[in-house]
From TrEMBL:
Transmembrane segments: none annotated. InterPro entries: Mpl (IPR005757), Mur-like_cat_sf (IPR036565), Mur_ligase_C (IPR004101), Mur_ligase_C_dom_sf (IPR036615), Mur_ligase_cen (IPR013221), Mur_ligase_N (IPR000713), MurCDEF_pg_biosynth (IPR050061). Residues 2-101 form the Mur ligase N-terminal catalytic domain. This is UDP-N-acetylmuramate--L-alanyl-gamma-D-glutamyl-meso-2,6-diaminoheptandioate ligase. Its EC number is 6.3.2.45.
């Protein structure tokens, strides 16, 4: 079958492409923009990428068009699909009907930590010999790919609450029907499609309705929003983490005892820094435990975990200045990422932020940004021309630590001029940040 994917370079749709290709289909795709790591992953798989959304990309007609949620009415390729009567579906629906329908699905949902927790869970099952399939919104470094079919009945998926497609406004995750579900946390996000937190909580309730009675819901015991979701109705086993009734950690961030219902199971050492990653680890352990994986195996697997690209990933060191890349784009994620780096050792932190997500550009979290950057020694913010808010006013509380720029090249020059040996530069964006990663390293060299 020939499948053409519209919006193929998004992390989720690139994963769909990789799985379809592995399943033996001919896969092509179109997108407005393509950047690593997804573009390089697709090219390595032999998938033809086409720039833009031209009707000619759909000639001769594919057997199925899979439509990403970046595609809207008015898109030239989509209008051609509709006028020509070509068969089309969404990415989540294609995955559900062609891959997930006969699998034990382990899904990871929540505002923060989905990618890391999904990657860790997939690796723990792989280490246990369970050979899972997976689809992650990033590239787990243990696998080097974001998605695969797997050779067992298990499939691990990052379960996003964003909408499915322009013709299906339900959250993506309602298509997955998990048997094991992790709920990491829940905050207001995606202001472009959800009016308030209650609307997101309702979508999470819809997700709970799809978990079978014999399934397991692993939930953050300290999250008030998730407690409200459970109160709307739950028909499955609930196992809490970061909670005395369920899975707990006692000790340091990277060296701690694991307890279950107050019983000590053993000590683990983790390569992941940050209290948030300790919570992610507990959630992954509790989900793997649902499949009967023993703690000794989980402990061994954790020690071999190499995390995910763009999650506090060290990308270079020049003249004593270390540069990190991270996907953080929500105030909570920014704060915990800066905190995790702070805990790794001495040296100034130069936090560099691009407010790029739809929610960020709308200004929904603008008043929280200053506080999220409080642990950084210097703060460099790219005031994109499409921001709907006054960055200078919103970030005024940062004080003289703030370096605000409306031009990317000026921002890079300022960072390079301010950095000194021993500093750690933390680049944060959920996009390619205008290629700042390579440009900054070259500027530091010169």
């Amino acid at each position: 079958m020939h499948i053409h994917i519209l919006g193929i370079c998004g992390t989720f749709m690139a994963g769909i492409a990789a799985i379809a290709r592995e399943a033996g289909h001919t896969v092509t795709g179109s997108d407005a923009n393509a950047w690593p790591p997804m573009s390089t992953q697709l090219e390595a798989l032999g998938i033809q990428l086409m720039q833009g959304y031209e009707p000619e990309h759909l000639q001769p007609a594919p057997d199925m068009v899979v439509v990403g949620n970046v595609v809207t009415r008015g898109n030239a390729a989509m209008e051609y699909v509709l006028n020509a009567g070509l068969p089309y579906t969404s990415g989540p629906q294609w995955l559900a009907e062609n891959v997930l329908h006969q699998r034990h699905v382990l899904a990871v949902a929540g505002t923060h930590g989905k990618t890391t927790t999904t990657s860790l869970l997939a690796w723990l099952l792989e280490h246990a010999g369970l050979a899972p399939g997976f689809l992650v919104g990033g590239v787990p470094q243990n696998f080097g790919i974001s998605a695969r079919l797997g050779s067992s009945k298990y499939f691990v998926i990052e379960a996003d609450e964003y909408d499915t497609a322009f013709f299906d406004k339900r959250s993506k995750f309602v298509h997955y029907r998990p048997r094991t579900l992790i709920l990491n946390n829940l905050e207001y996000d995606h202001a472009d499609i959800f009016p308030d937190l209650a609307a997101i909580e309702r979508q999470f309730h819809h997700l709970l309705r799809t978990v079978p009675g014999q399934g397991r819901i692993v939930v953050n015991g300290g999250d008030a929003a998730l407690a409200r979701v459970l109160a709307q109705g739950c028909w499955s086993e609930v196992l809490r983490f970061d909670d005395a009734t369920g899975w707990q950690a006692q000790g340091e961030m990277q060296d701690f005892e694991v307890l279950r219902a107050g019983e000590t199971l053993g000590r683990v050492q983790s390569p992941l820094s940050g209290l948030h990653n300790r919570a992610n680890t507990l959630a992954a352990f509790a989900a793997a435990d649902h499949l009967g994986v023993p703690l000794a195996t989980l402990r061994e697997g954790l020690m071999q975990f190499r995390s995910v690209k763009r999650r506090l990933e060290k990308i270079g060191e020049v003249r004593g200045v270390t540069v990190y890349d991270d996907f953080a784009h929500h105030p909570t994620a920014i704060a915990v990422t800066v905190d995790a780096l702070k805990r790794q050792g001495a040296g100034r932190i130069l936090a560099v932020l691009e407010p790029r997500s739809n929610t960020m550009r709308l200004g929904t979290h603008a008043q929280e940004l200053a506080d999220s950057l409080r642990q950084a020694d210097l703060c460099f913010v790219y005031a994109r021309p499409d921001l709907k808010w006054d960055a200078g006013a919103a970030l005024g509380a940062v004080g003289d630590r703030l370096h605000l720029h409306g031009e990317l090249e000026a921002l890079i020059a300022d960072i390079a001029g301010s950095a000194r040996a021993g500093d750690r530069v933390l680049l944060m964006s959920n996009g390619d940040f205008g290629g700042i990663h390579r440009k900054l390293i070259e500027r530091l060299k010169s």
